[in-house]
Amino acid sequence: MVEPMVRMRGLYKIFGERGKDVLHHVQSGMGKEELLARHGHVLGLNNINVDMQAGEITVVMGLSGSGKSTLIRHLNRLIEPTVGEIIVQGEDVMGLSADGLRKARQEKMSMVFQKFALLPHKTILKNAGMPLSVRGHDEATCDKEATKWLDRVGLSGYENHYPAQLSGGMQQRVGIARALTANTDIMLMDEAFSALDPLIRTDMQNLLLELQKELHKTIIFITHDLDEALKLADHLVILKDGAVVQQGEPQGILLNPCDPYIEDFVSDINRARVLRVRSVMSAVSEADIAGEVDADKSLEDLITLSDGDTNHIYRVTDNGETVGQIDMKDLVRALVPRASSSASAAR
Amino acid sequence: MAFYDGFFNIFGLKGWCGEAASSAPMSMAELLAKSSGKEAKGEFFPFPSLDNLNESCPGIIQSRDVTKGIENGFLAAKPALKAVLDPITQPLSWLLDGALWLFATTPWFIMVPILIAISWFASRSKQVTIFVFASIMMLGLVDHYDVAMQTLSIIFVCTTISVLFGVPVGIAMSKSDRLQKSVVPFLDLLQTLPTFVYLIPLIFLFSVTESKLYGIAIILYAIVPVIRLTDLGIRLVDKDVIEAADAFGMNDRQKLIRVQLPLALPNIMAGVNQTIMMSLAMVVIASLVSAPGLGVNVLRGIRNLELGVGIVAGIGIVLLAVILDRVSKAALKRVDMTDVKH
């Protein structure tokens, strides 16, 4: 197996002055509420074990207070863990000196923030070039790189504006350009699109997917929005009260939620749009084939293709090769949460 | 027989008190009582103050010994204080004298355009610049140009020094809660101590003919807001932006210069504005200790009850205050980039 880009092992974070002293209570199973009531400490993260693979988008999802923002801040140690291991590209982040940590933040990980966090007194160009100028590159290099990435996120012509002159969506494009200018392998995105309105958010998601197709960064994306998570994730981690409830491939989680909490979560989702043909198809067994469909198409696309007729069976292809077939009746069953999870459990 | 005699007897302290009669001079109350031919009669239950206790027990000091003690202590420490403070503060005298000389010898037809240019470059506002020009012309018209320039030069030197010392102190305070806790009481003291009161020890320390005497008084009084607002400004910098600076690996120096100071600048400028205003207030009082300028005329107005002189000088100070305030506020508004609109 390939060495993951980021590996978190046995990570605990307890907020409060005597975090280390009350750690054993948590390790022996004390919950968040009880810890707060009996010891006055807040449980941030509870035994996190997550691998994040290179070139993938790992989405960490949870409601507010679930510890997702705490988790992402552990990667670059903006928050110090109480105990645990964080390995980034084979290097133990916890073992870094102050200088080493600064270097890692400059060269390995860049970050995009929910509230943009741009420098209000600097132009867009200088904001985007900031990561390089922090490293001590000369102004020409910074400006050149910044211009390139601003152009890439669709902001050419705005270089000399100030952040306050731009809309939220445009400011976050600057935030992304800034992270890209840093040219790091890992990008941490903390609720990067949560402050944007829905249409702009969809735009930004598409922009991110488009950039990712080209750049293959390792992206750790935090969100509280399941639709967003399912759209972006290669690997989905669901947090609740600081602990991982379920993690894995998003389609798998959708079809096989392991926990009532997640069942609740996924019940409001437009499954036809999120589920892929690949996730519902069965093995090839010759039958009346009504047509062909690509494995990565959504169920919604297939319903359109079949014009709502549930009596057909389609051949599923991937790059022209047949990989399976899909019965429209299975498709309809997959659209209902309970039925699909019990059906797949029976299978 | 004084009220507290019994008290000392009960505790058997009579011996400790001693029988020696008070060597202190007779108090006013005693004198009055004597002259009216009656024995001084105390209140029914007097407050146990030093003087009242002293009547029963001469071993206890009188209140006048406290003030005397402070004075003696100060006088005893004076040579040492003077030996240290005199050389340190000497440059202030030179600066003030130099600035006074410079502002006085520069002819008005050069000085006025320079002032206009400064207000233009600081404020970039036509209105403010025209107002500055009109005000200076008005002061000149009633022959107050020279004194106004003296006041201005003192403010110029004192504000500059206040900023030079105040901003670093403010930065240091914002970095350390402990330092902040220990400095704030001093700032409170400087701000609330009646302005006349801290002239007194300064008069003891330095000769009244030296310009640094009023220079120090003005700076001590005026430095407070710039320290406070620098500290506050840096502490108020958006936590998200600081986090971003950390996330991109800035060191403390880069953070301070690239993020904290620029974002705190509007607050720091507000502090500078207040410092200017307070040094203007103090420069009038400092005329009591030979600070030249408009304050001297105000003082003359009070001393000789020359109503007109006092009021003209007073209005001159108001004009200067408004000029300085408008220019520094316009400059403040210009540096506040968070306020830029489409």
Number of helices of chain A: 16
pLDDT averaged over residues of chain B: 87
Strand content of chain B: under 5%
Radius of gyration of chain B: 27 Å
Question: What's this, in brief?
Answer:
The complex is a heterodimer of chains A (347) and B (342). With 347 residues, chain A is an alpha/beta fold. Chain A is 42% helix and 23% strand.
What does the secondary structure layout of this molecule look like, with pairings?
The complex is a heterodimer of chains A (347) and B (342).
Chain A: E1 6-15, H1 19-27, H2 32-39, E2 42-52, E3 57-61, H3 68-75, E4 83-88, E5 91-92, H4 98-107, E6 109-112, H5 124-134, H6 139-152, H7 168-181, E7 186-190, H8 198-215, E8 218-223, H9 226-232, E9 235-240, E10 243-248, H10 250-255, H11 260-266, H12 271-274, H13 277-280, E11 289-294, H14 299-306, E12 313-318, E13 321-327, H15 328-334, H16 337-346
Parallel strand pairs in A: 3-8, 3-9, 6-7, 7-8, 11-12
Antiparallel strand pairs in A: 1-2, 1-4, 4-5, 9-10, 12-13
Helix pairs in contact in A: 5-6, 5-7, 6-7
Chain B: H1 5-10, H2 14-17, H3 28-35, H4 50-56, H5 63-105, H6 108-123, H7 126-141, H8 145-175, H9 177-192, H10 199-205, H11 211-235, H12 239-247, H13 252-285, H14 294-304, H15 307-335
Description:
The complex is a heterodimer of chains A (347) and B (342). Chain A is an alpha/beta fold. Helices cover 42% and strands 23% of the residues of chain A. Chain A contains 16 helices and 13 strands. A 6-stranded mixed β-sheet of chain A has the order 6-7-8-3-9-10, sandwiched between helices. In chain A, β4 and β5 form a beta hairpin. In chain A, α5 runs parallel beside α7 (168-181). Chain B has 2 domains: 5-61, no CATH class; 78-341, MetI-like fold. Helices cover 77% and strands 0% of the residues of chain B. The chains are: A alpha/beta (347), B mainly alpha (342). The interface between A and B is medium-sized, with 30 and 23 residues.
